[in-house]
Amino acid sequence: MEIVPSAYDFKNGLADNNVVDGLLDEKNLLWLATSNGLSCFDGQYFLNYSATNPNFKIASSSVNSIARINTTIYVATHKGIDKIDALSKKSYPYYTATAEENIVKIFATSKGQLISITAKGDCKNLFSGKKLQLPFQATEYFMAEDEQQRLYISSFQKDFCIIDLSTHQQTNYISKTNNPIYGLLYKKNTGLLSLNFRGIFKYNTFIKKEKPYLQSDGFVNGFTEIDSSSFLTIHDFNKIIYHNQSAATYDIKVLLTGNAIYKKILMDKNGTSILLSNTGIYCFKLPLRFQSIVPDNQIANQPMVMVRRAMLEMPNKKILLFSYRGIQEYDPLTNTSKTISNEPLVNYSAIQDGNTVWIGTDGKGLFKFDYITKIFSSPILSKSALNPEHIFALCKEPDGKLLLGYYIPFGLREYDPITKTLTDIALPYGNAVPTQSRISHISQDETGHYWVATDNGLFELDADKKFLYKYDAATVEDKPHLPSNAVNYCFHISASQAWIATDNGCALIDKKNRTIIQTVGVKENMPGGKCIAILEDANNRLWISSYNGLSCFIPESKTVYNFYKEDGMPDDEYNYMASLKSSTGELYFGGLNGIVRINPAKWNTIQQKAVLQFTLLQKEIDKGAVDLIATTTGINGIKLMQSKEAMEIRFGFNEFINPEYCKYWYRIKGIDDYWTSLGNDGHLRLWNLPAGEFIVQIKGDNAKGIASNEMLELPISVILPFYQTTYFKLIIALVILIIIALFIWQRLYDQAAIRSIKTGMLNDIHDEVGSILTKTAMKAELLNMKFGNEVKGLEEIQRYSREAIQSLRNLLWSISSEKMSTQEFEDRIKDWMQFVFADTSFEVQFVNQIPDKLFIDSVEVRRNIILIIKELAHNTLKHSNGNEFKILLTKKGKKYSCTVSDNGKNTDENINLGGYGLKSIETRAKKMGGKVKFKKNKNGFTTSIIF
Fold first, then answer.
1. Distance CA 120, CA 137 (A)
2. pLDDT at 148 over 80
3. What CA–CA distance (Å, rounded) separates 736 from 550?
4. Where are the beta strands (DSSP E) in 662-766?
5. Which of 26, 225, 779, 903 could pair with 882 as two cysteines, CB 3.0-4.6 Å apart?
6. More reliable by pLDDT, 429 or 877
7. Is residue 103 one of the residues assigned to a domain?
8. Is residue 351 part of a domain?
9. Of 798, 818, 838, at which residue does a domain stop?
10. Does residue 769 surpass a pLDDT of 70?
């Protein structure tokens, strides 16, 4: 029996193709010891430990043996033993070997003790520290334990010894047994079994004799129990045998393992067999218990694989199988078949009437076959000019006539066996269609209506074969539509409902209202869209064959179960008309490599469970470092630092067959309530989530289409880095404000100090220089009074001294850093104007309309406004022939306005802006950030400065 396994090797991520040991943990994860590292396999991904991987590290990459105690995996290498927490995947050094030690085998006892054996025969209890020397040395040991805590150890030769685990002392030694030992196994109620080149022998340690338990003609080097009555043995080379105490044994040929040496076989919780070899691992299931696989007896020497086309149950309960190669008779009682006709016909379809069989062929017309005499009648052909004739579907009418559905030429005909005439039945669009069109299936329901499945829709005809209605895939709102125009099969479950198989899934139609009630397809986890046939079992479950597997659909729960080659099926591709429900309730489906026989009563879906679980929770921290989190603690909540840490989540069903058919969805509650499809990728990486509390939810369907019994939930708390928190920002803002305040305070303090120094200097200049100039002026005045006009120039000295004093006062005032009110400004200007216009006929006015107490703070502005007024005063004295000089100070909003005017009598209204004085005034106004405007008319000259 050939089985196609799911094969995994180095290209799939396995650490190395040479697998030397393996085990399954409590979560059904597969741990594999290889020549180049340790691999943990969850059905989709390999997590590899090596000496060079900083996050998943073991002492040496060459692994000799592994063992498990509860959730801890122990890994033996020539450098010692590492231990791994199976829940968190963290590894730790456990035992460091000396230079002379080479631990080649470790064994976990039923009481949770760990036994190690070196190549020199040193046997040690690593937990208690007790040691003993074995009576033999080997590079490979076989070990088994009984219920009395006795440990059996054998070498690869003919010797083995017995150790009392309670005392760690040797109690017995058997030297040179009859057969070389390739393995030891202790079976409860059976005793100690040894595997060797002659089969399996039971050994009696009391009388030191062995007797055959299972004879074999090959080397038995592996033994795995399936249940209490059946088991598997593996042999050198490339051979697996299934044994059942109540039935005959049979060989299992696992394909794709041409040069493999089988080393060990494991059985997981789902009944999956896992074969370890030097070319990788191979996962498969034994043939399903509710089926039989019937191969084509003539297939061996034929270049083309046999294809089943039609099946009929004859009155003697035997099944006729029609194919490209002839007709075979299958006996369900003996599970055997024989060829009853090798007539060179390509049989498309067949119907049965007692012992008479009508056969539609691919080009020879219609044949009548007598099941008793095995004689074919002459072919029945139409008068059509299109030959050959391909009859694809047959249907028997109540009056004994036959409806024939053609592939070439396309069309529907009726044959009357009595009159032996063929009559065309017109379909709505006639027979003039492409030759690739076909009629796939014809059926009649309880009302007498005929249903014709074609690749151009489904046609409903009345009892007289008149057209009533067409179902197709047109998406017209007021018209029901099928998932696909290509209709392959019509299965009537009642007078009012029928299931339709199409190239894009199946549809349930309400025949009375002509509406589509339900569709089932790839979205509902069916393996393939091209559905070929539909049968119903006694439990109202629908069995659907397709081009990519066999499915069982349960309408009540809307659940789909899928079966593939890896489940023991002969093939994944099934054929048109190749389906039958027998009188015993058994179902038959035909495909490329034989038939599948199903007894639905022996299949209990309650036993089918889809357990979805986390396999790896890994927090990525920084610079490639990771923090591994145990799945048992991670489900209580995980904290992530936003933009600094990422979360990698791996999950799956831990099914090692067809993992590509598994499907997963996720959503993050708190961000999005919609489910996002991950396809068949059981991996999720979360990065840069917003701050807050979230729950990651994951659900899925396994390879069989069974939904996970519970969704996975992982609470995640995303926190901001301390430098992004509101408190930190407030502290930083407060610090900045304090720094700014200190800076401003220091600036003001320094300015106050400078201002104090400036004031002192200005006072000193005023007092010292002003005092000297005043004394000079007074002295000149006294001399002038004393000598009169006798001393020339005394009057000029007196005037120049007073002018210098006034200029010095104005200069010191303009550069003073002290703030000034508008009244002080007015007083200063008036004082200076009186000095300028002294001994003249000009009347000086200063009008202040600014109510503000404080005036200009800027020394630069104060200085420029004084110089502008001074320049205008000198211009008035030089050029004006008036007698008034007026200053008007106003304010509007934040702008000051200073207007200076005289009443000089001028007739020329043109203003000469080219003069140095006016240019100087414009320049000073720009430095103040203001504007100046000159106006010259008959009434005088006016200058307006806005700043």
1. 5
2. yes
3. 72
4. 663-669, 676-679, 683-687, 692-701, 712-719
5. 903
6. 877
7. no
8. yes
9. 818
10. no
Gap between the terminal Cα atoms of the chain: 106
Q: Considering Cα of 146, then 151, then 154, then 155, what sign does the dihedral take?
A: positive
Q: Do the Cβ atoms of 394 and 411 come closer than 8 Å?
A: no
Half-sphere exposure of residue 269, counting CA atoms within 13 Å on the CB side?
Answer: 15
List, as one string, the DSSP characters of 802-869.
HHHHHHHHHHHHHT--S---HHHHHHHHHHHHHHHTTTSSPEEEEEE----S-----HHHHHHHHHHH
Q: Tens digit of pLDDT for each residue in 481-538?
A: 889 989 999 999 998 999 999 999 999 999 999 989 999 988 777 887 899 999 999 9
| Structural domain count, the chain | 4
810 has pLDDT over 80: no
- The pLDDT of residue 378 is 86
In the block, tokens 């369900």 appear at 332
Share of the chain above pLDDT 90, in %: 34
Residue 647 makes CB contacts below 8 A (sequence gap 6+) with 617, 618, 619, 620, 638, 640, 685, 686, 687, 716
User: Which residue(s) pair with 468 in the sheet?
Assistant: none
Q: Are 945 and 868 within 8 A, CB to CB?
A: yes
pLDDT at 303: 42
Residue 383 CA to residue 362 CA, distance in Å, equals 17
Contact criterion met (CB below 8 Å) for 649 and 617: yes
Show Cβ contacts of residue 599 under 8 Å, excluding neighbours closer than 6 positions: 290, 291, 585, 586
Angle at 23 between CA 19 and CA 25, to 5 degrees: 140
In whole angstroms, how large is the CA radius of gyration of the chain? 53
d(CA 671, CA 660): 29
Q: What is the pLDDT of residue 487?
A: 94
Q: Is residue 486 part of a domain?
A: yes
187 DSSP β-pair partners = 191
Q: Which of 772, 795, 818 is the last residue of a domain?
A: 818
DSSP letters spanning 562-611: EE-GGGT-S-S-EEEEEEEE-TTS-EEEEETTEEEEE-GGG--GGG----
Let me know whether 659 and 771 are in one domain: no
- The C-alpha atoms of residue 524 and residue 560 are separated, in whole angstroms, by 7
Burial letters 603-622, b for 16+ CB under 10 A, else e: bebeeeebbbbbbbbbbbee
CA distances 481 to 459, 478, 500, 733, 760, Å, are 12, 10, 12, 67, 103
- Main-chain phi, psi angles of 919, to 5 degrees: -60, -40
| CB-CB contact of 570 with 592 (8 Å) | yes
State how beta strands 122-125 and 169-174 pair. unpaired
Distance CA 452, CA 414 (A): 13
**Cα–Cα distances in angstroms (integers) from residue 937 to residues 875, 899, 903, in the given order:** 16, 15, 10
CATH code assigned at 666: 2.60.40.10
| Claim to verify: residue 826 and residue 901 sit in the same structural domain | yes
689/734 same-domain check? no
As a whole number, the mean pLDDT across the chain is 83
E strand segments, 205-259: 209-215, 219-225, 230-236, 239-244, 247-254
Query: What's the 3-state SS for 156-202?
Result: CCCCEEEEECCCCEEEEEECCCCCCCCEEEEECCCEEEEEECCEEEE
Residue 879's domain spans which residues?
820-947
The pair of structure tokens assigned to 559 is 């659940």
Lowest mean pLDDT among 35-39, 263-267, 582-586, 793-797: 793-797
User: Which band of pLDDT confidence, cut at 50, 70 and 90, is reported for residue 433?
Assistant: very low
Residues 314 and 364 in one domain: yes
Note the pLDDT of residue 865. 81
Are residues 871 and 846 both part of a single domain? Answer: yes
Place of tokens 């590079």: 139
- Are 788 and 826 members of one domain? no
At 112-142, the pLDDT tens digits run 999 999 999 999 999 999 999 999 888 889 9
Q: Is the peptide bond before 93 cis (omega within 30 degrees of 0)?
A: no
